[in-house]
Amino acid sequence: MKILLLFPRPLLLALVDGIPPVAGRPGRPRRRPEALLGDKVYDSNANRDELGHRRILPAISRKDHRTSRA
């Protein structure tokens, strides 16, 4: 399960916390996504750290000032 975010940044963690259980495989339903897809507005160390703490892969575009240029 992957999530695509289109909400303002302060709602990021509230949105992740509000994910309902997802059935599909036998056993306990999943409550967290494998990855979170987001736009550049969600790119912050705090968001990435919190998602990593929750074992969610942050697939968020990097802002230009944070990318390395060759």
Q: What does this entry show, briefly?
A:
The protein is built from two helices and three strands; from the N terminus they run βαβαβ.
Write the layout of secondary structure elements.
Elements: E1 2-4, H1 12-17, E2 35-38, H2 45-53, E3 57-60
Parallel strand pairs: 1-2, 2-3
- The average pLDDT score comes to 77
Taking Cα atoms only, what radius of gyration do you get, to the nearest Å? 13 Å
Helix content: 10-25%
Overall geometry comes to elongated
Task: Please give the largest β-sheet.
Answer: 3 strands, parallel
Name the structural class. Answer: alpha/beta
Total helices: the number is: 2
Low-confidence stretches: none
Major β-sheet strand ordering: 1-2-3
Terminal-residue CA separation: 34 Å
Q: What string, H for helix and E for strand, traces the elements in order?
A: EHEHE
Instruction: Report the count of strand segments.
Output: 3
User: Approximately how much beta-strand content do the residues carry?
Assistant: 15-25%
Describe this structure in words.
With 70 residues, the protein is α/β, with parallel strands linked by helices. Helix content is 21%, strand content 16%. It is built from 2 helices and 3 strands. The protein has helices spanning 12-17, 45-53; strands spanning 2-4, 35-38, 57-60. The protein has a 3-stranded parallel beta sheet, covered by helices on one side. Strand 2 (35-38), helix 2 and strand 3 (57-60) form a beta-alpha-beta unit. The longest helix has 9 residues, at 45-53. It is elongated. The termini are far apart. The mean pLDDT is 77.
